[in-house]
Amino acid sequence: MSFMKKFKDRFKNKEETEEVSEKYKEGMKKTRNSFSGKINDLLARYRKVDEDFFEELEEILISADVGVMTVMDLIEELKMEVKRQNIKDTKEVKDVISEKLVDIYKGDDEESELLNLQEGQLSVILVVGVNGVGKTTSIGKLAHQLKQQGKQVVLAAGDTFRAGAIEQLEVWGERAGVDVVKQSAGSDPAAVIFDGIKAAKSRNADVLICDTAGRLQNKVNLMNELAKVKRVIEREVPGAPHEVLLVLDATTGQNALNQAKTFSEATNVSGIVLTKLDGTAKGGIVLAIRNELDIPVKYVGLGEQVEDLREFEALAFVYGLFADLLEEA
Amino acid sequence: MAFEGLADRLQSTIKKITGKGKVSEQDVKEMTREVRLALLEADVNFKVVKDLINRIKERAVGQEVMESLTPGQQVIKVVKEELTTLMGGEQSKIAVADRPPTVIMMVGLQGAGKTTTTGKLANFLRKKHNRSPLLVACDIYRPAAIQQLETLGKQLEMPVFSMGTETSPIEIATKAIEQAKEEHNDYVIIDTAGRLHVDHELMDELQQIKTNVKPDEIFLVVDSMTGQDAVNVAESFNEQLDISGVVLTKLDGDTRGGAALSIKAVTDKPIKFAGMGEKLDELEAFHPERMASRILGMGDVLTLIEKAQTNVDEKQAKALEEKMRTMSFTFDDFLEQMGQVKNMGPLDDLMAMIPGANKMKGLKNAQLDENQLVQVEAIIQSMTKKERQEPSIMNASRKKRIAKGSGTSVSQVNRLLKQFDEMKKMMKQMTNMQKGKKGKGMKFPFM
Q: What's the CATH number for B4-86?
C-alpha cells in the first residue's frame, strides 16, 4: 500500500522508522483500540454496504470526536465513492475508508510542523489555551528539550492568576536548568512578559517561552488581555512572537474548534500542542481542526515524561491511529 | 453561557413544531433528526443520544401527544422531561457523616480542576452550611500542586494539611483525618493528583486511600468541555472507586456541555455541583430541572429569583417602589440599583436566565459591556449631592465639570441625563397603569 511506502520513505533508516512508529503506536494504543478496532469489527459484522452500515460508521467516527460536520462530509464522500466504484462488499470499502481518512490528516507541507526558530537572534514563543490543558507542563518539557539541543532558554511566568502557577513553572525551570522571570502573583502579565523580553535580551538567550494564564475563550476581557500581551511582544521584538502555540487537551470535544477559532482571532495562533493523547483520548478533533481551520499541529503529548512531548509527525499520527487497518490492508 | 449553542439549535428545531395543530410522524422524524445532530455536536455521548431519541420518538408519536390539544407544546414537554431525567431528575444533597468529620475525596483527570474545586467546595460548605473544612494536599506529583492548595487556603483563611511530596498520599490522608478530629474540623476535603483512568498504579493508590479513610463522598471532577471520552472516564472511575457524585467544571465557557448530559445516564451518579467561574465563590449546586429549561431556552427564572433574593434587600425594594410612585426617584437610587444588579453576577449570565431573552433582537449577540456600567457609575459619582437629587439644575458648566471628573465627555453626560429622564417618565406610566382603569392608563408613545 502506498501509504506504508510513503511512511517508510519519510525517515532515513529503518531504525528511525521503527522508533517513531513504535512511540506513536504505543502512546496511541488506547485511541487505536477503540477506533480502528471498531471499524474492523464493523467490517466483519456487515456483509453488505447499506444505510445501516453507514449509520454505524458515522457513530464510530463521532465517538472518536471527529467533528460532526467533518463526519457528515466524509460519509457523503464515501457514499459517492461506493456508488461510483459499485462496491457491494464491505471488504473493498475498507481501502476507501482508510484512504479518505488519511487524505484529511496529511496534506500540509512538512515545514509547518517544525518550530519557527530564528538563528542568531531571540525567538519568542507565546503559549496560550484554556484552563487545565497543560500549558505550564508543556512549556517545561519544551524548555527541557530546547536546552538539550544546546539552546539558551528563558521562561516568563505570565500566569499571575492561578494559585501556584508561578511556583509550578519555577520547578520546571529548575529541572530543565533554565532561568524563570517572574513577578508576584496578581501582577500584570504584560509587564511580566516585558521583563522576560528584557532579561532574555540581556542574557543573549535564543528562545523566550511565555506562559499565560488559562482562560476560557468566551471571556472577552481575558482575551483582550492576551491580545495586549501579544502587542507588547510585537513592540519589543520585531517579527515576534515567532510562534503562538495553542495548547489543546486531546480529550476535549467539539469545543476545541471554538477554542482554536477564538484564540486565533485574538493572537493569530501558528500551531497547536495536543496534550494528553496517551489517555483513551481519541484525538479525532485534530481531523476536524485540519478540515475546518487549517492550523498545523506541532507537538503532541504522549505521556508524562519529559521526552514524551514529541514533534508532531502527521504520517506517524495517522499510522498510530489506523495501524491495524493499514497493516492488514 | 454554557449550553448556549445547544439551546439555540434545539430551539430553532422546536420552533418549527411548536405552533402545529397536528404533528405527523414525518414531523417527529424530522425533529428528532435535528435534535440528534444538535446533541451530537454538543458532545453528548452517541449511545446516550440514541436512547434518548428513541424514547422521544416513542412518546411523541404515541397517544400522549397525538391526542392532546396542543401537540407542538406537548412534544417540547416530552423533550424537556427526557432531558431532565437524563441529567438526574432531582437535585441531590451533599452527605453528612453521623460522626464528624465528613470526608470528601476529589478525583479526576489532569487539568479537570480538582484543586480549584476543592477550594470552592470548602468555601461553599462554610458559606452555605456554616461548616469548618480542612483541606488536604495529597497531590504529591504535579509540581507546585501543594503550593496551589496552600495559596487557596490562605485566600480563604482555611487550614491546609500537607506533608510535602515525600510522604505517601495514603499516609497524608490518614494523618489529616486525625488532625481534623483534634481540631474539630467537621469536613475534610482531600485533593488528589490528576490521573488517567487507565493508569493502574495510580488508580490503585486511590483505592488504598479510599479503604483507609472511608470517605463519605467521592466526587469525580469532570471538565465540561470533554468530548465523547467523558463517558469512558466516568465509567472507569465509577467502576474502580464507586464514586458518589460528579462536579462539572468550566461550565462558564461556551461549551455545549454534552458531557454533563451523558455522565448521569451512563454511571447513574448525580451531578452535584457546577463550577461557573474563576472566583472561589463561583460554585453552584446543580439543578437538573433548571438546567434543562435553560437548554431549551425557557429561561431559569427560579435561579434568577434566588439570586435576587440573596442580593436585594426587601426594605430597600419597598422604599424604591414608593419612590417610583411619587416620582422622587433620584440618581442616588439609580446608583444603588446598579450596585444590587451587579452583585447578582455578570450581566450576560443574568440575561440568559430570562425566558426568551436570547431570542430578542439585538440582545442575542450583544456583548453586555460592564465597562459601560462603570462609566455611568463614574458620571453619577462626579455629581454633587444636589445635582443627584435635582437633575434639572444641570447647566453647561456643571456638565463640563462632571465630564471632566468622570473622564467622559459632555455628550456622554447628556445621554445619561436624557436616559434618566425617559426612565422616570416610563416609571410614571407604569405606576399609572398599575393603578387600574383598564386600558386607559396606557399612554406609551408607541401605542
A: 1.20.120.140
Range of the domain at A172: 123-313
CATH number of B102-287: 3.40.50.300
Separation between Cα atoms, residue A98 and residue A325, nearest integer Å: 7
User: Is A223 part of the contact surface with chain B (CB cutoff 8 Å)?
Assistant: no
User: What is the average per-residue pLDDT within B324-349?
Assistant: 72
Q: Where residue A270 sits, what CATH number does that domain have?
A: 3.40.50.300
Nearest residue of A to residue B143, measured between CA atoms: A168
Q: Which residues of A touch B197 (CB under 8 A)?
A: 279-280
Residue A88 placed within a domain: yes
Extract the C-alpha cell encoding B69.
390539544
ipTM: 0.76
- pLDDT tens string A67-78: 777 888 888 888
A306 and B CB contact within 8 Å:
no
**Among B41, B144, B367, beta carbon nearest to A220:** B367
Domain presence at residue A53: yes
Q: Which of A64, A131, A258 sits opposite B228 (nearest CB)?
A: A64
Identify the top-confidence range among A83-97, B12-26, B146-160, B367-381.
B146-160
CATH number belonging to domain B312-438:
1.10.260.30
- Region of B7 on the Ramachandran plot (φ > 0 left; ψ -120 to 50 alpha; else beta): alpha
Q: Which of B198, B223, B256 sits opposite A280 (nearest CB)?
A: B198
| Residues A134, B111: C-beta atoms closer than 8 Å | yes
For the residues B106-115, what does the mean pLDDT come to? Answer: 92
How far apart (Å, rounded) are the C-alpha atoms in residues A100 and A75?
10
Best A55, A133, A182, A255 residue to mutate vs chain B (most B CBs within 10 Å): A255
Q: How far is A308 from chain B (nearest CA, A)?
A: 15
In whole angstroms, give the CA distance from residue B262 to residue A81: 34
Q: Which residue has the cell 472507569?
A: B236
Same domain, A155 and A284: yes
Q: Which residue of A has its CA nearest to B199?
A: A279
Whether chain B has a CB inside 8 Å of the CB on A206: the answer is no
- Count structural domains, chain A: 2
Using the structure block, give the residue that is written with the C-alpha cell 460532526. Answer: A68
Q: Which residues pair with A244 in a beta bridge?
A: A126
Sheet holding B271-275, edge to edge: B160-161, B133-138, B187-192, B102-108, B217-223, B245-249, B271-275, B283-285
Separation between Cα atoms, residue A18 and residue B355, nearest integer Å: 59
CB-closest option in B50, B228, B252 to A216: B252
Residue B257 to residue B265: CA distance in whole angstroms = 14
Q: Do B225 and A164 touch (CB under 8 A)?
A: no
Q: ∠ CA(B59), CA(B63), CA(B69), 5° rounding?
A: 105
Set of chain B residues whose Cβ sits within 8 Å of the Cβ of A281: 229
pLDDT at B335: 80
Can you read off the three cell numbers belonging to residue A12? Answer: 532515513
Q: Residues 6 or more apart from A184 whose CB is under 8 A from it?
A: A160
* Cβ distance of B144 and A63 shorter than 8 Å: no
Cβ–Cβ contact B148 with A under 8 A: yes
Strand partners, B285: B273
Find, among A20, A29, A4, A5, the residue nearest to A279 by Cα.
Answer: A29
Q: Which regions of chain B carry the CATH code 1.20.120.140?
A: 4-86
Q: Which helix (H) or strand (E) holds B275?
A: strand B271-275
